[in-house]
Amino acid sequence: MSKENLTYDQSFTKPIIKYGMITNLLGVLLSFVPSFVLLFVYDIFPGVSNILSGWVLIVSIYGIYAIVEPVSYFPILGLPGTYMSFLAGNIGNMRVPCSAIAQEAVGVTPGSKKAELVSTLGIAGSIITNMIVVTIAAVGGAALMNAFPPIVIEAFTYVSPAIFGAIFSLYASKKIEYGAFALIVVGIMLLVIKVLPTYVMIPVAVFSTVFFAFKTHDMRNRKNK
Amino acid sequence: MKEYLNTANSPLLWASAMPIALLVVIQAIIFTKKALDSAHLVDLSKDDARKAFKIGAISSIGPAMGVFVVMLGLMAVIGGPLAWMRLSIIGAAPTELAAAGMAAKALGKELTSSDYGMMEFANATWVMGLNGSAWLLSTALFSHKIEGLTHRISGGDPKRVGVLMISAMCGAFAYLFGNELKKALNPATVPFAVSGISAAIAMYFLEKFARKHPKLGEYNLGIAMIIGMACAVIYKRIVA
User: Fold this and answer.
1) Of A65, A132, B81, B229, which cross-links B14 as Cys (Cβ 3.0–4.6 Å)?
2) How many Å lie between the alpha carbon of A43 and the closest alpha carbon of chain B?
3) What is the C-alpha separation between B121 and B127, in angstroms, rounded?
4) Residues of chain B neighbouring A24 (CB-CB closer than 8 A)
5) Residue B130 and residue B24: Cα distance in Å, rounded?
6) Does A135 touch chain B (CB under 8 A)?
7) Residues B157, B159, B165, B168: is their CA dihedral positive or negative?
8) Is the pLDDT of residue A91 over 90?
9) Looking at beta carbons, which residues of chain A come within 8 Å of B190?
């Protein structure tokens, strides 16, 4: 078999683009299966104008994120991670942390091809877990909720901040100046300017830090030469 | 129970929610297989590949439990099948609640209205579908283009790719973390900031420790999460 002779691009990147495109487009179609069941089986249809006005209301809040989020998270998630994360959701609280911790534990160079594969596997693992937990929740429902002591349920309302703090600390300690710079930028946006919408703050936080990092990286390189 | 919830929780609705949930799993399996097939090209050992998958699976138990808790709220309004479907795919619970809310608003109702019924539910299925499709479309059509763009930014130099990734990570999580830190300003939401800060500190020391004992690194995120949540609950009980 010539499989051994394939380049990384042929063996991984190309098929990922092909399957990523097909599955995410298929996802659009399959999103509407319940709607069509209601329409064709139960004969219930809210009417095009009601659908559209509901859509306009929600798009005016979240529409911009469909562009901003994939672009902002791309340097972190990479190509396969982007297809998977935006089909499976829960990006900041689950996909990115799982990708990061998998890379950390295996010990790969961030941004390398090996890191891309490790990240893909970490995210895939997290997708399977999420599916199992969500399915148990759906089937067990409220009955399961009563099985946990209330204090445990309460504790889980604080899970997201803990994840964000832990992952920030993990990466800021790799390059303390990037972390400090990013936190200052975010502090200025949140506490001084205050009025910026989230869809501005996320890309500003990401790309100003990237810009800062490249500037300092290049300066240091020049000094060393 | 409200009338429409009989339909919203019917076996047929469950069946209709299944194809996309299956798609998510199938995609994860295809990508896993491709990654395993290509592992030898980048000197990724079978053990490390298995380890990566396992760590992803273990580390997401905590956050998935967080999803579980909000999901129950969503189920009460739109029924089990749709809540299950939306939270297995693109959806994050707050976005989906907002979408369901806007779908009701288009019909002049609220999610909490006593006359929220079948038509509002049907509208929710459409509006949630349309809303989520925006992300699916943009990533399906443009991901490979963004890949080209990041290549140009980094100039293909692996060192610069590393700088790009670490700095982007610092930027994105400084924002997410900063939002939680800001909650310290409001007495009612201080525990959120406590959770974030204590998990950040815990992670710092766990990482140092893991450098000496690499085997323990796999559980770092889980341990930091538990410490964060515990500190938040303790703070709320004792201080507040």
Assistant:
1) B81
2) 10
3) 10
4) 136-137, 139-140
5) 18
6) yes
7) negative
8) no
9) none
